[in-house]
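Good morning C.,

I know you're traveling, so I'll keep this short. The sequence:
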Amino acid sequence: MRVFLTGATGFIGSHIVPELIGAGHQVLGLTRSDAGARWLEEAGAEAHCGTIEDPDRVARGAAQADAVIHTAFDHDFSRYAENCEKDRRVIEAMGGVLAGSDRPLIITSVIGMGSTGLGEPAIEQTVDWHHANPRAASEQAGAEMAAKGVSVLVIRLPQVHDTAKQGLITPLIEVARAKGVSAYVGDGANRWPAAHVSDVARLYRLALEQHEAGARYHAVAEEGVPMREIAEVVGAGLGVPVVSLSQEAAADHFGWLAMFARLDMPASSTWTRGRLRWQPAGPSLVADLRECAYRPAAAE
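The tokens, ready to paste straight into the viewer:
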């Protein structure tokens, strides 16, 4: 298939490109820069220049493809709700050119949307439309496009990691470096699910190739890694103390990350694994965190 991939030069997208090409697919990748276009061409893909700030331009890329994988997202969390609405507009624009066809539109969401209740693992069959995370806008847009005849699939992401990036843990490391302590909230028993980026890229390909309209998949290798364990590994890497914070102190310490640092968000991928025969094989989150190139806080 000829696949239009948004976020093609981003963290996840740059791993999806070789995954798709290696399986015999053609890739048309969205990029905002000349450097990104060169990288795509060297990887064996074709570049489509544009940004998610221009939904019409993105839609023109989707119109040229047999399928779309949408991973682009503006990760400026100081404007998170606004960026989630931006994602809605991009999904609507691409859906507009795919409606009435059997061409898959794979959109990206977050694990919290599958929440089934406090302390229970998120599952694929649940959609929590009332979840506090503004990223609900992405799945809402997907549902609206599905109602208009678009073949929509959803992949929900946990903390996607390698030794260079680890989702929300990457900015947590920067907070620990700046504050001189690696912190968790309360007893640190709250959990974050995780998956290695190579496993996530493979899941996108499998979802594309098996193309089950309406399906929701969880890219979860580890159901939940306790925040205290994460903080301890980060503290050891930076050479800083590990401390527990009260709920009240967390807001000042973590800033915009506080809402996430307190969350317990385990997630299951049992259905996904069985449906797609997906078996994660990459390193664990803690293994990658131990291999990070930490720069001690004392060196600041």
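Safe travels,
E.
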